[in-house]
Amino acid sequence: MSARRLSLRLGATALLIGAAFAASTASASAGILVASSPSCDDQAVSKVFTRWHDYAYYTPLPGGDFESAADGWSMTGGATTASGNSPFHVGRPDDATSLSLPAGSSATSAPICVGIDHPTFRFFAKRRTGTWLSLPMLRVDVLFQDSQGAVNSLAVGFVLSDGSWQPTSPIPVVANLLTLFPGENTAVRFRFTAKDEAWSVDDVWVDPYHRR
Q: What is the DSSP letter of 134?
């Protein structure tokens, strides 16, 4: 794995946390996250990462192409959509915008339904400021609802970049092990945080493993 594609992921500890949540929940309270999530049924899929030798099918995260002002997303600290798309155009060839994250900002996605067969997600990222010496990282958290209806968060990835657009490595969802819906599904959001340097993010996709 090249350094610029490196995504430092939580390993066995995070998976054990997810498994513990799964084991401890039987039915969900009517929390905001679950109530606002779309269905897992009929998610459109495509092989968007084949040029990077990843032949899995992926479904787009709602608003994750950032072409419609990131509908359903919440922004803090100056995060916004901006001109400048990932050069790979894995969505539509005329896509022209991406997520801009100034230092100290964060963006939280619209909810998506996932299940035990949605193990990972990927996206495109570019560090806009800083150098390798400072090891600037983009933090990614998954937000999930527990059986009491409370929304919790868990760090699932820290992304590095050499300053050019690149796809991340597959990052584990982890909270997909917490199944609050019938059919072993649940609702999650993803939060992207640029702590010390500015970043751009584009084209966020989730892997429904069972569609391979």
A: G
